[in-house]
Design a protein that fits this description.
By secondary structure, this protein is an all-beta fold. Helix content is 0%, strand content 44%.
């Protein structure tokens, strides 16, 4: 058989990353489809946390619930300081700097 090419439109094209005032709770979402609908529960969301020397400290994984997901950075492991966080879901990667005080 001859190969065929099939085009498709990505279901998710954008999402927000924010954190609470304590800067220890990272919120991902709402994650919506290209039609503006919340994505179904269960989409994998990955958070990678790097120190100021760009060394990977930890990777956390959760799944979406009601179009969002969140992560908590415990003070026992993540002391006050500067971290680079990388959030990846639906093939989209977001990098941000987080200052925990």
């Amino acid at each position: 058989s001859k190969p065929i090419t099939v085009g498709f439109e990505a279901a998710v094209t954008n999402y927000n990353v924010s954190w609470d005032n304590d800067q220890r709770t990272i919120n991902v979402g709402p994650i919506k489809s290209f039609m503006g609908q919340e994505i179904p529960d269960g989409l994998e969301i990955q958070l990678s946390i790097y120190d100021s020397h760009n060394t990977l400290l930890e990777t956390k994984i959760t799944t979406s619930k009601q179009g969002s997901g969140n992560f908590i950075l415990t003070p026992d492991y993540f002391i006050n300081g500067s971290y680079r966080i990388e959030v990846q879901t639906a093939g989209i990667i977001r990098n941000q700097t987080l200052e925990i005080k």
